[in-house]
Every structure is written in structure tokens, then in C-alpha cells.
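Session log. Operator J.P. requested a structure for one protein chain; no other inputs attached. Running the standard single-chain path with C-alpha cell output.
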Amino acid sequence: MEIELPIPEDRIGVLIGREGEVKERIEKETNCRIDVDSETGTVKIKCDDPINFLRVQDVIKGIAHGFNPEVALKLLQDEMTVLEIIDLTSCVSPKHLERIKGRIIGKGGKMRKNIEDMLGVDISVYGKTVAIMGDPEAVNIAREAILMLVDGSQHTTVQRFLESRRRELKTRRLDWQNLP
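Structure written below.
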């Protein structure tokens, strides 16, 4: 299997890593081949294993959308970690994009940090996108919270929503753990 993915010019060096260490690590852990064309900003992935083929795509998309390689590599190490990318241009006009990104991040990064801490997810606000990584249920709740912020909900309203959903999530997880 083979695919080409675009990557922003400023993220190419992050994907490659110092002396090629990030790229080599991904290739070694997945047995996939990654070719980076820094002229066009294109990454070509070649892989025989379909699961690793999909995982490598997610890692590269994660790095392309602003995640640190160590965070993006969680997608290889944990089968339950997923990546979701929200394209803000689909729900916000370009003239409001910076303001909305500021609402998502919050003063001093507080809102983004609260979402990450409460749900155990990682969030990257980069370019015209917001990327979320974590457990599928937690990622869905984080997406809902971010879309509430995009729609203009107050930070306190979103905070209460997160607290409520986190309690539900913990209860469901405890129910699963108590099964015989």
C-alpha cells in the first residue's frame, strides 16, 4: 500500500527529527517506508501491513497538525488512542479564526489545559485546525467542548459540561472494571 500526504513546510523538520531519528523510529516500529520531499511538502508512505499503514498516516497527520513527535507516537503504542482533526474553516469565517483559536486556548492556555487534564487528551491548535488525541470517548467529549467554544459558549458553561461528562465517563469505566 502506498499514499502521499501533504505536510506543512515548518513541520517537515519535526517529522524527520534531529539526524533523522523521528522518521527512523516510525519506520523501525512499523516496518513502513517513509519518504519526505521537502521541496513539495509531500510525505510518501509505503507499507505492507494495513494496520501499521493507517497508524503511520495518523502519526504523520498528528505531527503535521502541530503535535510534538513524542505525543504523536502514542498513536503507535496504544491501540485505543485515536486522532481527530477539526477544520475550523468549516465552521468559522477567516476573519474570526484567530479569535476562536484564542477562545479554545484560553487565557494563558488555561482552557486547552483544562480540557486536556479533565479528559486525558492531548490538544494541538495549529494553523486552521484543532487536533485531539486520546481515548475515543474522551476525544468525542473534547470535540463537543471545542465546538461549544466555537459556537460562543462561555468558558464556565464549557467547564460545567466537561465536569459532567467526565463524571459520566468515570462511572462507565468503573462499571466496565467491575464486570466479572
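Operator note: The chain has two domains: 2-77, 82-177.
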